[in-house]
Amino acid sequence: MSRNKLSREEILHLAKLTKLHLTDEEIEKLSEQFGETLDYVKNMDELNTSEVEPTSQTTNLENVMFEDGQKNERRLDYNDALKNTKKKKDNMFVVDRIL
Amino acid sequence: MKINLLGKSVVQLRELIKKKEISAKEVFDYFKKRIKRFNRQLNVFLTEAEYKENKNINGELSGIPLAVKDNYCTEEIRTTASSKVLDDFIPPYESTVTQRLINAGYLLLGKTNMDAWAHGSSTETSDYGPTKNPWDLTRSPGGSSGGSAAAVSSYLSPAAIGSETAGSIRQPAAWSGIVGLKPTYGRVSRYGVIAMGSSLDCPGPLTLTVEDAAIILKEIAGNDPFDATSSPKPVEDYSKYLGTKKKYKIGIADEYFDGLDKDVKKEFLNSIDVVRKMGYEIKKINLIHPKYAISDYTIIQRAEVSSNLARYDGIRYGHHRTSFAFEAKRRSMLGAYTLSYGYYDAYYKKAQKLRTLIIEDFKKIFKEVDLIATPTTPITAIKLGEFVKYPFFGELMDKLAEPSSMAGIPGINIPIGFDRNNLPIGMQIMGNYFEEKEILNFAYQFEKETDFFGVIKKGINNYKD
């Protein structure tokens, strides 16, 4: 049994944050497995990182800019951009009502 | 057909096509025939491509058919990342890697099976069923580029494109008994590759020979205005460099021997003896233990997965989020947890700092040695179904590749022998940032010396015409 086992409420909160649907069986499994994983990664505390700067990018590139006036060849036209949608209307995506 | 094509490398096929001894269409049809015959039992291809003439007949890859992992967007050809979420997704654009292959004259053979979203190391999290290991159909080919690895080792394709976040090229290459190169992060553009861990993802080739890997890398590498993290460093002529005589000093780290299967250890040490006899200096080194890289990788990767999978809203393309299978849910949610208020410092930020330590560790060691040799995987191919026993199976199977992936340095898998069950064993060679040419050169010399102990040829001969 894991020390860090997450509660059902915590799992449901994470499912809400990530907009994912879970079965009861999955909730049970995840609360146990997250605990095991969080137990394992505690070993990071064995190494002293108090004076260390964090890394988010490994090859030291800085401020890569898109030049003004350059042609944006990535841009898709309406037809291409809408090709894979299930619901469209007047060249627009149809989304669920949120208000 | 007069010419026996079985087992011919990309370089050999290219030569035959150039001399007009065989046409590109005939080569394509040869592989189509083999796919028709063997794909049912191996489950390598999710989508097969039809022959489409490539007008460039003077490119480095003119007429060469290649299999491509199903996380590369291919214009007008279904791309699923092995997830039902993208079951009917037809990309309206081409990834940079496949565009460069088109420019070089290649022909797409088909899209290969993988772990869904590249989450896994056995190709079993695919929503389209597992790929079988060509050496033993009851086993996994490794993953996540398992379809690409199996395609090459069974010669359903003369080479393939895979992608690696941490181990996903090298590990299936080891388990399937072929060559697999993970380049430096940023050496090859990620544009149009369905993202898993954006600070880690690296496209790369899986091949029968080191020379083929060198040739394909040169074609796909280089700066890309569509990927701001791609490196502006000039691309080198990797294949021209092969055979250059150099006195490499090779580091061997004790920390990478923990938990090795005894046959893996034996064959690795045997290969190190070969390397020594070839005249290279072997030096004992110490590196941060891979058990810490497992934690570092787990945290960083899940955080990036959580962010990357958030874009699948089922509105612009693909299906609703209810189509996500268990593994993607698990990763997204743990990522959300470690990025949450209150946990961020303890997990995500801590992992970013540990990443700095791992980088510094490699930088220091590469002042002492030129290359580092380790086994690629702690064990050989597992039985299908066994992976569910491990809560983070992939991270454990890839533990020897994770430190280098966290650092962003390149590495290659090469076959070095068999275990007691006649399954291939792999060795990885890692090098400093952007030193792919040194890794390839060393691997090439090793190949010349050993012919990889016959592993690759034996694999292909299990699937005769």
The shape of chain B is globular
Largest sheet of chain B: 11 strands, mixed
Unreliable residue runs of chain A: none
**Strand and helix order of chain A:** HHHEE
Q: Mean of residue pLDDT of chain A?
A: 91
As a percent range, the share of helical residues of chain B equals: 25-40%
Largest sheet entry of chain A: 2 strands, antiparallel
Compute the number of helices of chain A: 3
* Most extensive interface, chain pair and sizes: A-B, 51 and 59 residues
Beta-strand segment tally of chain A: 2
Question: What form of chain A results from the Cα inertia axes?
Answer: flat
What is the number of helices of chain B?
A: 15
Beta content of chain A: under 5%
Structural class of chain A: mainly alpha
Summed over residues and divided by their number, the pLDDT of chain B gives a mean of 96
The beta-strand count of chain B equals: 11
Fraction of helical residues of chain A: 25-40%
Order of helices and strands of chain B: HHEEHEHEHEEHHEHEHHHEHHEEHH
Strand order of the largest sheet of chain A: 1-2
Record keyword descriptors for this entry.
heterodimer; A: two-stranded antiparallel sheet; 3 helices; flat; B: 465 residues; 15 helices
Textual characterization of the structure:
- The complex is a heterodimer of chains A (99) and B (465).
- Chain A is mainly alpha-helical and 99 residues long.
- In chain A, 33% of the residues lie in helices and 4% in strands.
- Chain A is flat and about 55 Å long.
- In chain A, strands 1-2 form a two-stranded antiparallel ribbon.
- The mean pLDDT of chain A is 91.
- The longest helix of chain A is centred in the first third of the chain and has 18 residues, at 24-41.
- In chain B, strands 1-3-2-4-6-5-10-11-9-7-8 form an 11-stranded mixed β-sheet, with helices on both faces.
- With 465 residues, chain B is of the alpha/beta class.
- Chain B has helices spanning 10-18, 24-42, 96-103, 146-153, 170-176, 210-220, 238-241, 262-277, 290-309, 326-338, 345-365, 393-397, 402-407, 436-450, 455-461, and strands at residues 45-48, 65-69, 107-112, 159-164, 179-182, 202-207, 249-253, 281-285, 371-375, 411-418, 424-431.
- In chain B, helix 9 (290-309) packs across helix 11 (345-365).
- Chain B is built from 15 helices and 11 strands.
- At the A-B interface, helix 1 and helix 2 of A face helix 9, helix 10 and helix 11 of B.
